[in-house]
Write a structure and sequence with these properties.
- The protein has eleven helices and 39 strands.
- It is of the alpha+beta class.
- The protein has four domains: 6-132, Immunoglobulin-like; 147-451, Alpha-Beta Complex (Coagulation Factor XIII, Chain A, domain 2); 488-600, Immunoglobulin-like; 606-699, Sandwich (Immunoglobulin-like), CATH 2.60.40.10.
- Strands 2, 4, 5, 9, 10 and 11 form a six-stranded mixed beta sheet that branches. The protein has a six-stranded antiparallel beta sheet with strand order 20-19-18-16-23-24, sandwiched between helices.
- Helix 3 crosses helix 5 (245-254).
- The longest helix has 15 residues, at 263-277.
- It comes from Sinosuthora webbiana.
- Its cofactor is Ca(2+).
- InterPro entries: Ig-like_fold, Ig_E-set, Papain-like_cys_pep_sf, Transglutaminase, Transglutaminase-like, Transglutaminase-like_sf, Transglutaminase_animal, Transglutaminase_AS.
């Protein structure tokens, strides 16, 4: 009587991956999501009899063992093992169709499948199965009910990251590319590298925290090495990436950190990693984001007598900062904190000895529950600090500091992410904060202050309240918001488009609303600064004394000639913003007000020409056309293009493009994936760092 032997195993890849929403992964192995059934076809040397012993063995890790839970032995007649189920769907002669359902809280990772019959063990070819989190499964903690949201936050492999400044937000297309070759393998390598235990791999809170640490190179030779130095020799400038694919592929190949990244690169890569592992994830940009090193919820800004910002503060306000939200139930927290959780892989501060941040419940930030794990104090400060302006004056040869103003509603504006199913920005500030000055905001703020703030400091809203100090005495806290005696108000804007090579034409508008004759001293300055708030160059200042008969307003022009800034613009590797700072003081009442606005340069567009639709595996031509409408030569131009499922990342060297000249590049494309595909293009040169565009094509 011949013993039962397996002669073949079919993992039914195409039918299983369709049902598991994993058919897009470019990998020869089977990729499935936990908690959902998948089928396996077993071919035997004879018919299966009631007395036969058949089991599927799933092993995870180096040395799988039953008693450690890393080896699961599933027998069709035994209902349940560690939450996994297996059943016989049908027997047909020597063929046997099995259905396997993993536990909805199984550890994610790579499982080796062996089939055991009696004493025989069969090892199928490509028998490594990748198990991911499952937002389609109600019993998985990453479950997301809304289909359109899953389509966006789990399945979409392209998107935008919002950058610029609160005054001029723009979208930077980013290819997440979670399905591309080696990307899933890179994520599995990171999971192994994280040294998370099997139990910890069950929980997306642990996994997302570990990934926030591993996407930066600090501490652990992670994926991306951050640099804000302005010198990117020996690597790729952070501005030059257009997606995560090249970065993760290079990292997987070399196992060494890829140079260089800044916050949007870290967020783009972390978004890819989380979506790839099956956790709903989105990139979140906050404008005027505080980096408060003393955890006292104030950021100090120092100005000289010309109104120019000085680089002397440890705290900083970044024009924008990008992190990620991941979606999950927080089983480790009290009720009420499920949903979006902030995680941040930009190395800013150490948390528990490593550069990692989150997951921090977004609802906790809104309610002021800043004691919740992980890092909620840090995230709260990023969106809620006050900006305090100080004037630095030399008095008898020594620097003396005079407090100018406190801005309470400035930090954490226009919190943005890509809208679900649409190519537009969605403002999610309300998920992070109550409306400024509302009753809920007051309560949330007082709650947060009870955990953070040293006593006696100003609160954030323009209202008076009494806050208990440690000594038990109460003191009223009143804020000098622009509720000034004269109703003084400043606005800053540009009066002409800000094209590199042209004069920068801006205006400072001073308004007073109270009747009377007012004498106002106005100081204005214009500087170039990095998005991290670091000043790169002083371009010019203006000092005026104006007389206003209230209520009225006056516009003071501020004009900077091109030769004041073009040299700096061409010599820096990063994109810089134009910072205008104004200080106004009313002589009669000593009212003081400070205002700053950052603006970005405006660039001519890249046009993409290609058909609206194309057929799978049929070539088509895509042309990129750029006309230099600026008054300056663009030196060392490079065009970077990538189309996921159409063509791999390609770059064209364009040399110098003279004013008025048109350049055209063409690429032959062969679509390998169906549906809507996107082509992303970016032009970089010495003078301009970030002209990008994208265009969609439908592949049938």
């Amino acid at each position: 009587d011949s013993s039962l032997k397996v002669i073949g195993v079919d993992l039914l890849k195409s039918q299983n991956t369709k049902q598991h929403h994993t058919d897009a992964y470019n990998i020869k192995n089977l990729v499935v999501r936990r908690g959902h059934p998948f089928q396996v076809q077993i071919s035997l040397n004879r018919e299966l009899r009631p007395a036969d012993k058949l089991s599927l063995r799933f092993g995870i890790g180096e040395n799988p063992m039953k008693n450690r839970g890393s080896l699961l032995s599933l027998k069709p007649e035994r209902e349940d093992f560690n939450g996994w189920k297996i059943s016989i769907v049908k027997k047909d002669g020597k063929e046997c169709l099995l259905s396997v359902t993993s536990s909805p809280n199984a550890p994610v990772g790579k499982y080796n499948l062996h089939v055991k019959t009696g004493t025989n063990i069969y090892k199928p070819e490509n028998g490594v199965i990748y198990l991911l989190f499952n937002p389609w499964c109600e019993d998985d903690v990453v479950y997301m009910a809304n289909e359109a949201q899953k389509e966006e936050y789990v399945l979409n492999d392209t998107g935008y990251i919002y950058v610029g400044s609160a005054y001029s937000i723009y979208d930077r297309p980013w290819n997440f590319g979670q399905y591309e070759e080696y990307v899933l393998d890179a994520c599995m390598y990171l999971l192994d590298k994280s040294k998370l235990s099997l139990t910890e791999r069950r929980n997306p809170a642990n996994v997302s925290r570990a990934m926030s640490a591993l996407v930066n190179a600090n501490d652990d030779n992670g994926v991306v090495l951050g640099s804000w130095s302005g010198n990117y020799i020996g690597g790729t400038s952070p501005m030059d990436w257009i997606g995560s694919v090249t970065i993760l592929q290079k990292y997987y190949k070399t196992k060494k950190p890829v140079k260089y990244g800044q916050c949007w690169v870290f967020a783009g890569v972390l978004n890819t990693v989380m979506r790839c592992l099956g956790v709903p994830s989105r990139c979140v940009s906050t404008f005027d984001s505080a980096h408060d090193t003393e955890e006292n919820l104030t950021v100090d800004i120092y100005l000289n007598e010309k109104g120019e910002k000085l680089n002397i503060s440890f705290d900083s306000v970044w024009n924008f900062h990008v992190w990620n939200d991941v979606w999950m139930k927080r089983t480790d927290l009290p009720n009420g904190f499920d949903g979006w959780q902030a995680i941040d892989s930009t190395p800013q501060e150490q948390s528990q000895g490593r550069f990692q941040c989150g997951p921090c419940p977004v609802k906790g930030v809104r309610e002021g529950d800043v004691y919740l794990p992980y890092d909620s104090k840090f995230v709260y400060a990023e969106v809620n600090a006050d900006r305090v302006y100080w004037l630095v004056r030399k008095v008898n040869g020594k620097d003396k500091y005079f407090k100018l103003a406190t801005e309470t509603q400035d930090i954490g504006k226009n919190i943005s992410t890509k809208a679900v199913g649409q190519n537009r920005r969605e403002d999610i500030t309300r998920e992070y904060k109550y409306p400024e000055g509302s009753r809920e905001e007051r309560m949330s703020m007082q709650r947060a202050y009870s955990f953070i703030r040293p006593s006696g400091l100003m609160p954030r809203s323009g209202y008076a309240s009494t806050v208990q100090t440690l000594s038990g005495s109460t003191q009223p806290l009143v804020l000098n918001e622009p509720a000034t005696k004269t109703g003084l108000h400043i606005e800053i804007n540009n009066t002409e488009p800000l094209h590199p090579g042209n004069p920068l034409e801006m205006a400072i508008t001073v308004k007073v609303s109270a009747p009377g004759n007012w004498t106002i001293d106005l100081t204005g300055s214009c500087q170039l600064q990095y998005y991290t708030g670091k000043v790169q160059a002083n371009l010019g200042t203006t000092k005026e004394t104006i007389n206003l008969e209230g209520p009225s307003e006056m516009q003071i022009p501020l004009k900077i000639a091109p030769d004041m800034y073009m040299k700096t613009l061409s010599s820096v590797e990063d994109e810089v913003l134009i910072l205008v700072t104004a200080i106004a003081e009313v002589r009669e009442t000593k009212d003081k007000l400070t205002k700053e606005t950052s603006m970005r340069f405006q660039y001519p567009p890249i046009n993409v020409q290609m058909p609206e639709t194309a057929k799978l595996y049929n070539d088509f031509t895509c042309a990129f056309i750029f006309k230099n409408k600026l008054n300056v030569i663009l030196e060392n131009c490079k065009l970077l293009v990538e189309g996921l499922g159409i063509f791999k990342m390609t770059s064209f060297d364009m040399g110098d493009i003279m004013p008025g000249r048109i350049m055209k590049s063409e690429i032959i494309c062969t679509p390998t994936r169906l549906g809507e595909r996107k082509i992303v293009a970016k032009l970089i040169s010495n003078q301009i760092k970030g002209i990008s565009t994208e265009k969609a094509i439908t592949i049938t």
